[in-house]
Structures are given as structure tokens and as C-alpha cells.
Amino acid sequence: MSKVLIIGAGGVGSVVVHKCAQVVEVFSEICLASRTLARCENIRKSVKERTGRDIEIAQVDADNVAETVALIRRFNPKLVINVALPYQDLHIMDACLETGVDYLDTANYEPPDEAKFCYKWQWDYQERFKAKGLMALLGSGFDPGVTNVFCAHAAKHHFDEIHYVDILDANAGDHGHPFATNFNPEINIREVTARGKYWENGAWVETEPLSVKQSYDFPVLGPKNAYLMYHEELESLAKNLKGLKRIRFWMTFSDNYLKHLEVLQNVGMTGIEPVLFEGREIVPLQFLKALLPDPASLGSRTKGKTCIGCEVEGVKNGKHRKMFIYNVCDHEECYREVGSQAISYTTGVPAMIGAMMMLTGKWRGAGVFNMEDLDPDPFMEKLNIHGLPWLEKVMA
Ligand SMILES: NC(=O)c1ccc[n+]([C@@H]2O[C@H](COP(=O)([O-])OP(=O)(O)OC[C@H]3O[C@@H](n4cnc5c(N)ncnc54)[C@H](OP(=O)(O)O)[C@@H]3O)[C@@H](O)[C@H]2O)c1
Question: For the chain, is the Cβ count within 10 Å smaller at the N or the C terminus?
Fold first, then answer.
């Protein structure tokens, strides 16, 4: 029985709260805190209607460490689940260190003024978490998160050596808007417009944004154009998977999404440098976020499925082997269960399961951990139980 503090009342936060509320034997008390209290209030009402459970809510600016520390001291949780934005990661880790509480997130730190993410900033907390006997679990979403666990599962059960990994993320959902992003538009567009990058033979290879594509035949969804992108789990997996020769990440985009993105980029709407407008500075990408549909509002109108998985190639008992480990998730089913679309759902469920692993002691340790550092078996078992069943297809 454990108290958990969830920070961030967005699309993902809503799923995390609903899923934690379903597992009363682990999450005995839940507090949801965020910048805008009204969003917490809406989620509180939905959780009450769907599960009958009462949760606490609070207003917090998680960039203000003292405020977060005061909230943690007042609620006294065993774990803080950070599903605010990547900008808050280090501030919330600082608050956890100060109060002696474990930490979990779904996305690695990104400085607000530079479209760059990497684990270094958070890996630098290793000694401080170790010294206090605290655990920080990084990237417990789907990708990163489940994709790392799929790789650990492949290494443990199916391969003696893994040589090649391709992570493939397809969303065949249709929300009916001409253009919208499935999660926070600012974070999403920063990620998609960045240069591509993959790891091969011990070195990083850079590509122009979205310049490399393949048609991949996804289970259930069929062939889709998938574009090579840099994604944060590549950094930890390239370091942690021994014997690896190459790892890449691919995401599907519709031609319509890419057409809108190209125009927005060409006119400067995706920029993160402030520009002067009617006497005040505005950041174009933040202004664009204000115009685009709120990702949390897409749930009721999105139809179709997602498929995310890892194609892993290597050697078992001296023989070549290739397989695809994946999940297929249906937008409408997610909406019926928790009132959110599948992108928030596929992130929120693994955050809840990661928290469950830590709170039940299945995953324990002092320091900063990536998902593949830990035993994949109990996590894989819970995916099947809590809404993200996985399948394996042997390809060779
Ligand atoms: N690993 C994965 O598979 C995966 C996939 C998708 C997303 N993610 C990550 O999940 C996280 C949440 O994404 P989302 O789509 O839910 O985003 P979102 O809908 O924009 O929600 C973010 C929430 O955080 C709150 N917030 C922002 N700054 C805050 C602050 N300083 N203090 C307190 N609360 C603050 C926002 O408050 P307001 O309501 O006031 O704006 C909002 O409610 C992001 O880090 C994203 O990168 C991970």
C-alpha cells in the first residue's frame, strides 16, 4: 500500500491517474498536482465516475523546487511520477533528493531554450541518488520505456547476441483535424524537426530531418511509410546492449501531416527563438501550440490503431534469428476505458507499471536506472494484464 504523487495533468497524466486508481492494492492514495488546478479537477471527476475512487489534487509549479518540496512534505508520498514536461525533470529530481523520495519519468531532460535532449543531465544524478539510497527510473513510457523492456526481454530469452535493432512506431489513428499532434505539440514538433541520428559500429551517424524513409509492413496496420528519427532510447540502448552493431528508430507520418509541418517550418512557425510581436516577445512554437488542438481533446474523435515494436536481429545457438516484438493498441478502446487516445494511453500505462514495479519491490535499487537495466519479466507480465498485451513474430 503506497501513496503516490503524480505531477502533470496533461494527456499522459490523466491516463496514469486512471490506471493507478484501478490498482487500489498498490496505489492506496493518489495526489495529482499540476500547474493548472482546473485540469486536475477534471481528471479527479473522471476518476471518481469511472473507478469510484477519490484522489487529492494540488496546484504546483514544478519548476519551483521549494514549492514541490513543500507539496511532497505535505502529502508524504513514497514515489513521485513526473508526467509534466521534460523541462521539469531536473527540478523534480532535486525535490525528490531533498525530501528522500523515489522518482520516475517518461521523457529525458530537455533545456527549454535548446531543442536538444540527452541522458547526461539525468545520469549525472547517479551518485546523489545512490548516496541517499533512492531510486530514479528514467523513461517509463512506451518509447522510451516498453521498447527498452522489449530489448531486454529479447536479450534475456531469445538471443545470445543482438546485432541489429530497429524500433518502429506507427500511428494509423485518424482524429479528423487537418493538423494536430498526439502529444504536447511543442515537444512533438521539436522532436520531429530535429536532425535524424542512428548508431552504427560504435559511432553516431546524422541525417537531414525526415530524409530517410522505408515502407514497413506493420502487423494489423499493413505497409506504412516510416521515417528515421533520433529518439532518446537509442542513447541508453546503444550503451547497454552488448555486441550491438546498429540501432535505429523509425516513426510513421501521413503525407498530410508532413505537408502541414513543411509549410509551418517554412514560414517560421516551428522556431523556438523569441520574435518581437506588437511590442512583446513571443516564441513561434509556443504560439502555434496555443492554436493547435489540445492533444487531450483528440481522444473522443480518434479512430484506428497504433503499432509500436522492436525488430531485433542476432544469433541464438549459433543460428541467425530475427523477430518483431510489438503491441497493437486501439484508440477507441482506450477512450472507452480512460477517456484518452492511444498515444497518451500507451505512455501512461507503462508509467503506472513502472511505478508498480518500484512500489512492490520487484524493481529496486539505489541510483538512476534506465528500463533495460532491470529484469523485464515482471514488467512484461503486467503489460498483458493492464491493457498493453504484446506479441512476438519470428521472421527468420
Ligand atoms: N515515453 C513515451 O512514450 C512518451 C510519449 C508521449 C509523451 N511522453 C512524455 O510525457 C510527458 C507528458 O506529455 P503530455 O502529452 O501529457 O503533455 P501535456 O498534455 O502538455 O501535459 C503536460 C502537463 O504538465 C503540466 N506542466 C507543465 N509545466 C509544468 C510545471 N512547471 N509545473 C507543473 N505542471 C506543469 C502542464 O500544465 P498546464 O495544463 O498548465 O499546461 C500539463 O498539464 C512529456 O514529458 C512527454 O514528453 C512520453
Answer: C
State the closest ligand 1 atom to the C-alpha of 143, by its place in the atom list counted from 1.
3
Confidence of residue 145 (pLDDT cuts 50, 70, 90): very high
* Helix pair angle (146-157, 376-385), 10° resolution: 120
State the distance from the centre of ligand 1 to the C-alpha of 342, rounded, in angstroms: 16
- pLDDT tens readout for residues 8-22: 999 999 999 999 999
Nearest CA to ligand 1 atom 42: 10
Give the residues surrounding ligand 1 with Cβ less than 6 Å away.
7-13, 34-36, 39, 60-63, 83-86, 88, 106-107, 139, 141-145, 183-184, 187, 295-296, 347
This model's pTM is above 0.90: yes
